[in-house]
Amino acid sequence: MRIVLGVSGGIAAYKACSLLRRFTESGHDVTVVPTAASLNFVGEATWAALSGRPAQHEVFEQVHEVPHVRLGQSADLVVVAPATADVLAKAAHGMADDLLTNTLLTARCPVVLAPAMHTEMWLHPATQANVATLRERGVHVMDPASGRLTGADSGPGRLAEPDEIAAYALAAVGDQARPGATGDLSGCHVLISAGGTREALDPVRYLGNRSSGKQGYALAADAAARGARVTLVSTTERPAPPGVEVVTVESALELRDAMLARAAGADAVVMAAAVADFRPAERATSKIKKTHDPADPDAAPTIELVRNPDILVELVQQRGPASAPVIVGFAAETGDEHGDLLSYAREKLERKGCDLLVANEVGEGVTFGQDISTVHLLRRGSEDVRTVGPADKSAVAAAVWDAVVAMRAAP
Ligand code: C5P
Question: Which part of the chain is the DNA/pantothenate metabolism flavoprotein C-terminal domain (predicted)?
Fold first, then answer.
């Protein structure tokens, strides 16, 4: 795919280096078009070295090749990261005073803008109106992430993570291709769960886990890019990949209801969520107070837990003898003195009854919230194991869908 990566003048320009690497490592041809201001943050030599071709930013260079028209016309995808308030304003008003803004006007492919700016600038009615105009015209404007900004301040305005932008952009291309899609999941409806459940103790507290939801979102983005209709049942607030329907839930019981209600019509179901095995037996209706016994002020409450249902097992039971949907489970595993990771994974695959188990190697600091993981794909009724990684979560997602496509072709 021919990608134009526009970079405008914000401190987050350095993150575009990682985004560029993700695109080139996936085999795409990337031309970087930095604005003049952005070259104060990352210089031309960096872009040339990372993309393997000169960065382009002059309308009046190589005029005989008409670069301001050619770049946009020949691109399959244009991504601007970071997109400053200034670039959003120029794009919304059709201004064209440099190569990047010219390219935005000539592009007829999906255009993805990943904003980054201070919170006040993002929330300003002028910026919000520009974003609304662009979205109305079909431009994919991501929501910025929230968090620490350049100074001491924090709020919405941080550039989304390079992985997220790459997945979103990929899905934007798939989204455009969906009517009459040619991907190997076209015509399929896939249902994916993502994130860690939150089991409420009272109106302000919950028991949770460290799952980031990244794997589930990578699965959703890749399935959408391959032409599937995607429903993502998620516990997180991450921006949805384009074209993906998101159902937001919190607890294991909510996740279970959402999944069971939608699984019957699906072609594939992937349980990537980290579902809590236990929940508090009771949810207090008001905040649990520090002291409830004046005679014993240091007393702490005892919280009784009950088991949550195993949603994966219930999905398999609900399907019964039918061949669809293909059901995929995840398992975070380590070996120990009684067995290795693969034998535990095989035992879990049999016990849960799903068709494919993706066994994640976990350990101290590994997998949860990380971008890189190593997984083993085990298929029911087969001794073969496919190992993927260490690889990023989009590569794991691609391997999972490859396996699902193969299983649908030869059940
Ligand atoms: O048993 P374990 O938690 O290791 O199984 C992991 C797999 O089972 C994951 O696919 C997870 O989404 C699913 N699961 C579930 N319901 C639970 C616990 C886990 O569906 N209560």
Answer: 185-406
* Whether 146 and 197 share a structural domain: no
pTM of full prediction above 0.85:
no
Q: Which of 130, 209, 308, 360 is catalytic?
A: 209
Same domain, yes or no, for 192 and 288?
yes
Residue 352 is labelled as binding a ligand: yes
Check whether 310 is labelled as a binding-site residue. Answer: yes
**Binning pLDDT at 50, 70 and 90, where does residue 180 land?**
very low
Q: Is 209 a catalytic residue?
A: yes
**Domain co-membership, 156 together with 198:** no
Cβ burial 66-83 (10 Å sphere, 16+ → b, else e): ebbeebbeebebbbbbbb
Q: Which domain holds residue 123?
A: 2-160
3-state secondary structure of 64: helix
Same domain, 189 and 149: no
Asked whether residue 172 is assigned to any structural domain, the reply reads no
pLDDT value at position 28?
87
